[in-house]
């Protein structure tokens, strides 16, 4: 800095005016500039190398068990650490557990906890919009990992507050030394583990590279599959969905409709029989004194959400049916007018509403005589139990025949008024 005052505002210096490559259309000439080559190598290139290696490197049983265990260990680093602890603060963790989770999550090779959580908070805040870093509205492939393979304009992603993460020394350390964490936890530890029985190379290929590939693909499903497959029991305005298959693939993150509604609940599955190993682990850590302040939404609030969504679906079904002419759209008749009209048509008044039963007289299940006895009268009492207590279906059928309403409600009211008036 020269310290010399400048009259040119920083925004007009050209650098920030430059159009980001992500904001230009992909053409045959510039497509290679749109690709994030580093991520392509990390997410596709290295796994391909591992698959090719697997043809030459025999898989030992001990190494297979070690690779699967390490898969769960690093997967939980993402789901219990990156996701439920750092993105959502759904529980608190002691320092040893935070170090453990930062190490495990780093071994999954999905970026630092700070970077991951910032994007995930934007995903929750701006779900399905252009500011959602992995909006499923841009396609299933995009939400899975396309968003990392094609360059994004970082300015497009919605703003979020991560001041709490900047105050966590474990998160800050992991972010600063991320490449070291990846080298140690992503490759060195899985190699050394299998090295205990002399299978260093098998450890590198299976517990290292291929395990990274599987854990990445599994956790990417939280952004793709969980927004595409299943039910929406709590809210259907956005894309998150609940499905057991997604839960199996993502260490329990499959009840994503619930999760988007109650993101700071440490659970994803609320029923005991649903698969949520991440929740079970957090609970075990609590028993061990490593985790505390596990947040749970009240069952009453959860049930409210479920009932409101059911009501919404029910209202939509109801709206598809014909319920007869709405009462407030019917013409208003004087009692005398009704009596006059009933001379030429089979009109019956029930509860202040006039019904034209002309075509129904012959079909009346109670017989012709019963219904004709009500023509030109106030049949409210007869209909509602005086003669016969009609069924729900009969009430619905009657409402399809309504043609008018009587001023004042019913006969009695009209007579009372007539008496008063003299
Ligand atoms: Zn989501
Ligand atoms: Zn989340």
Task: Describe the 3D structure.
This protein is mainly α and 422 residues long. The chain has two domains: 20-307, no CATH class; 327-421, Roll (Flavocytochrome B2, Chain A, domain 1). Helices cover 51% and strands 5% of the residues. Strands 3-6-5-4 form a four-stranded mixed beta sheet. Helix 2 (37-54) crosses helix 10 and helix 3 (61-87) crosses helix 5 (113-125). The protein is elongated. The protein starts with 30 loop residues before the first helix and ends with a helix. The model is unreliable at 1-15 (pLDDT under 50). The site of one zinc ion has 7 residues, from helix 3 and helix 5.
Average of the residue pLDDT scores: 90
Runs in which pLDDT lies below 50 for 5 or more consecutive residues are: 1-15
> Per the principal axes of the C-alpha atoms, what is the gross shape?
elongated
How far is the N terminus from the C terminus?
Answer: 100 Å
Order of helices and strands: HHHEHHHHHHHHHHEHEHEEHHHEH
Would you tell me the structural class of the helices and strands?
Answer: mainly alpha
Sheet with most strands: strand arrangement: 3-6-5-4
Rg calc? 34 Å
* Structural domains: how many: 2
Number of helices: 19
Share in helix: 40-55%
- Approximately what portion of the residues adopt beta-strand conformation? under 5%
How many individual β-strands? 6
For the biggest sheet, the summary is: 4 strands, mixed
Bound ligands, each once: zinc ion
